[in-house]
Specification:
It is a single chain. The chain has one domain. The protein contains four helices and seven strands. It is elongated. It has helices at about 5-20, 25-70, 120-130, 180-185; strands at about 110-115, 145-150, 165-170, 170-175, 190, 195-200, 200-205. The protein is α+β, with helices and mostly antiparallel strands. The longest helix has about 45 residues, at about 25-70. Helix 2 (about 25-70) packs antiparallel against helix 3 (about 120-130). It has a four-stranded antiparallel sheet. Strands 4-6-5 form a three-stranded antiparallel sheet.
């Protein structure tokens, strides 16, 4: 057999290999599949985050409504409106005068803050109501309470009626997808093998519920 005759089958085989497209989609699949899975798991993660944010909003609303009607969660909250500083030679305001009628009619108590981790009946009652709505990785320390003075809410000698603020704070949302690793570059952190990003702080303020009115109310 001549060399030319031997080369013809080889050339035919080479052309067959060049025309064969079997497995050509595998490299494309290898490139596209990770991106597709990243997108799917990213949607799941952000869906989880959206759900937990909505439920945490509801928990904050409920906690604020309860805190506005129950005895203070935090120790040291004032119980009545005491008289403010009275200048020498002036007539002190009468009891029953609205705190907002003039400056320094009532002494402004300091703002008192604490978390639901304090040992109080109100803290326990509120946490028992709201913790089913809270993210599963939250604790009582993530539910904060603040009692601040507002002159429009009381009268001299009457019960102290603060503005009650409830916050959910200090949470970090854990990702299960690689998107969390990307989010770490934008201010997240690594906890074990689970990357996280800060969970948005949620805050609700309501006036304490006391309808007693002074003469200027």
């Amino acid at each position: 057999m001549t060399r030319a005759a031997t080369d013809r089958p080889r050339a035919h085989l080479l052309r067959s290999l060049l025309r064969d497209e079997t497995g050509v989609a595998l490299p494309e699949l290898a490139l596209v599949l990770p991106l597709f899975l990243l997108l799917i798991f990213g949607l799941i993660d952000f869906g989880r985050m959206g759900y937990e944010f909505v439920m945490a909003n509801k928990a904050t609303d409920l906690a604020a409504r309860l805190a506005a009607t129950l005895p203070p969660v935090c120790p040291g909250v004032a119980t009545e409106n005491n008289r403010g500083v009275v200048a020498v030679g002036t007539v002190p305001p009468r009891f029953g005068t609205g705190c907002a009628s003039a400056a320094s009619v009532c002494a402004a108590p300091a703002t008192v803050t604490c978390t639901a981790a304090v040992d109080s009946a109100s803290a326990t009652a509120i946490w028992d109501q709201v913790h089913p709505l809270m993210p599963g990785y939250s604790s009582r320390a993530n539910l904060a309470f603040s009692y601040s003075y507002d002159a429009n809410l009381g009268f001299l000698g009457g019960p102290y009626v603060p503005v009650v603020t409830v916050e959910i704070t200090g949470l970090s949302f854990p990702f299960v997808s690689p998107l969390g690793a990307m989010a770490a570059f934008a201010g997240g952190s690594w906890e074990g093998f689970s990357p996280t990003i800060p969970f948005p702080t949620i805050s609700v303020s309501l006036p304490g519920e006391d309808l007693a009115q002074g003469e200027a109310g």
